Amino acid sequence: MNAKSDISPDSVSSTTLEEFRKVVRSRRSVRRFTDEPVPDEVLSDCLELAMLAPNSSNLQPWEFFVVRTPDLKAKLAEACLGQNAAKTAPVLVAVVARPDTWRQHSRMALEQWPEEQMPGIVKKYYSKIAPIHYNQGPFGVLGVAKKAAGLVVGLSRPVPRGPYSVNEMKVWATKSTALAAENLMLALRAHGYDSCPMEGFDECRVRRLLSVPRKGLVTMIVAIGKRSEKGVYNRQYRFDSRELVHYL
Ligand SMILES: Cc1cc2nc3c(=O)[nH]c(=O)nc-3n(C[C@H](O)[C@H](O)[C@H](O)COP(=O)(O)O)c2cc1C
């Protein structure tokens, strides 16, 4: 990863806010794309920005499968139930959550710490705490034991309430991966490109086509390209925030 994440917080100004607003407000789920290709540099920049998404323990439990070759793309579009977004997009990216890479990524975090001195707390976290926190043990027995211990200790003080099972690890990885998918889509918009996140696909076929690792979860397939004239099907709307936002 490069130094782009080292941008000073002070460099964010009110102009940036207006630009950000434009990016967010002009992002739409686009269902029909033009034939215009997406330059490699745009795609790789957007993927770098996607990977700057906040993520649990910085364990980066995601992978991106970029599909551009016409033959594979056509097969993948078919597996996306023949949706127009998938059929017309010049690029499809499968955004895959990896609930199973935490051990390897803990090691990588220890090896790739970006400063000369690794704080003791960081070293302890990745070498001692993470291997207990994320490990559910054979058949999930460690997870069950941790949950039971948490229930007892939790009576007298706040304790983490998970992840305590293989399924909770799936949720754990999917949360961070979905944030990366959103970063990807906003980055594309900032570059003047469009996207459509899709969960409407045949996961078995997608996994086979892309050789997704056994424990990987295809969180979304993002169709990418330039919106065509009739690419947005309806006006954007959201429910009244008074129903959904609670100021306590
Ligand atoms: C997880 C997820 C899955 C989605 N799956 C599909 C899909 O399979 N096909 C599709 O056309 N749109 C899909 N969408 C797009 C939504 O329909 C769209 O975001 C929503 O209608 C709001 O419209 P907007 O994105 O233009 O604001 C999906 C969005 C998300 C976040």
UniProtKB/TrEMBL annotation:
Domain Nitroreductase positions: 24-226
InterPro entries per the UniProt record, alphabetical: Nitroreductase, Nitroreductase-like
Keywords assigned: Oxidoreductase
Keyword Chloroplast recorded: no
Family, similarity comment: Belongs to the nitroreductase family.
GO molecular function: oxidoreductase activity
Protein name: Nitroreductase family protein
